[in-house]
User: Fold this.
Amino acid sequence: MSAPKLALSCLLLLVTAGVQAAVNFEQWQTPQDAREFARLDNKLPAVLSYFSQQSQQQLQQFYQQQLGEPTEQRQRYGQLELHYAQTQQRIRIIISEQQQWRQVDIMVLANTP
Assistant:
């Protein structure tokens, strides 16, 4: 496993015994120009939102480098949705256009048993 993938896997704390764990977004890699505007990471589902001037394609490539190929990818309501599956968590990344910027919303959800 590559170092970035291993680091991201370590960041995503496992959900054990039915207790929802927090996610440490402090160590989550985002593009250099990311301007964070929302973070809710004390329990699952956890959310990190930021703006970037990178193109939708650049952001998609960034997350594919970090997390690999998405398990699902679709365009919906003008937004790109990328879905990833980790050990006991799911990650959904939504990239949408906001004037000259792209809004990126990262959601970490617990897998349902």
User: Anything to note?
Assistant: Helices lie at 3-11, 56-67. The two ends are 26 Å apart (CA to CA). Confidence is low (pLDDT under 50) at residues 1-19. The first helix runs from residue 3 to 11.
